[in-house]
Amino acid sequence: AVSGDIARLKKEGKNAQDGFEILLNVHYLIDALSASVESSVELRFSGSEGAVLVQTPEEKGYLALVMPMRT
Questions:
Q1: If you write DSSP's letter for every residue of 22-37 in order, what string do you get?
Q2: Pairing between β-strand 63-66 and β-strand 42-44 as defined by DSSP bridges
Q3: Which residues pair with 44 in a beta bridge?
Q4: Residue 38 carries which DSSP code?
Q5: Distance of alpha carbon 10 from the chain centroid
Q6: What is the pTM of this model?
Q7: Counting Cβ atoms within 10 Å, is residue 23 exposed (0-12), middle (13-18) or buried (19+)?
Q8: Tell me: the pLDDT tens digits for 10-68?
Q9: Among 28, 31, 32, 69, which is disulfide-ready with 54 (CB 3.0 to 4.6 Å)?
C-alpha cells in the first residue's frame, strides 16, 4: 500500500510474531524498480529493519537495495 511518500510492505505470518511490516520511501522504491528493464522483479527482505533487495530473475547483473524508514 502507498500512502503519501511511504510504501508499506506487509509479510503476514502464521501468528502475530511471524509477520512484520516495512516502510519504504516510495520514490526510492520506484527508482529501484524503474532501473530494471524486466517486467517482473523479486523483492527480498529478512525483517522489518533490514534493507529490501530488488532483483530480477532474468537480468543477472541487476541488484538494488532500498533501506527501510524508521518510525
A1: EEEEHHHHHHHHHT--
A2: unpaired
A3: 53
A4: S
A5: 10
A6: 0.75
A7: middle
A8: 888 787 677 888 999 999 999 998 888 888 889 988 877 889 999 988 888 889 999 99
A9: 32
